[in-house]
Amino acid sequence: MLDIKLIRNEPEAVREALSRRGAQAEAALDRLLDLDRQRREVLVGVEERRNLRNVVSEEIARAKREGGEASAKVQAMRAVGEEIRTLEARLKEIESTLEEELLKVPNLPEPSAPPGGEGDSVVMLRWGIPREFTFSPRDHLDLGAGLDLIDMERGARTSGSRFAYLKGDLVFLQFALVQFALQKLASKGFRPVVVPVLVRDEAMYGTGFFPTDMQQVYRVEADGLNLVGTSEVPLAALHMDEILEESELPLRYVGYSSCFRREAGAAGKDTKGIQRARSAERPCPGTSRTFVE
Prior knowledge:
With about 290 residues, this protein is an alpha/beta fold.
């Protein structure tokens, strides 16, 4: 989540950065700046009245000690107290709305990243030479179905489209690949972790999946939990709300989990084959993480 101070102090720089990643930021930033202005105005009103109440309360106490009359001031302070309660409620409402709106704004892109979307990406490195075939290669689904290693028909009958049963040697291959990845990264200092696949909303907000990607998430309403679409979520939440000592850093983890994603709104994109898996390696401040999914 962006710091509102950054948006307040450098609004044009934030607008430019978000426009580079294709975000429609103009109206959103104007809304945030307006909410921030309202919050600060109401906060000043609350603090002024609190200060007035403290000062007059001392005057009332002094008057009572000296046997003077303080009923008018007492009555006035009751009115001030009511004003404070009204303003505090308003402040809470504004701060809640401000936080909700901030969660909708994407992070700023890395300055060297090219503007635009995936189609504007720049190749930074190539490794190896793509293999050339003397025949028309077949994809994983054709090969797996032909060898009775992938069963889409029974998977669809059991769970719906794009689900599959993996069988035989393909099962051993899957776990061999998992072992390969875990052992390779463990040898580089990453600690293996099998993470929970059901998480609270806080973990989804903390990793940026909520509120923007709610439609992609399978939710268990009865328990207020969410099935993760990547082990990144519970792995990042491993030290949620903790303050780590600098001497403990860096912490490196490699996480493994089943991943669940609805792929809502894919509009036909990447629809062939079994439910897609994801893999990623991403660093974050204070904690280095690699995800194998």
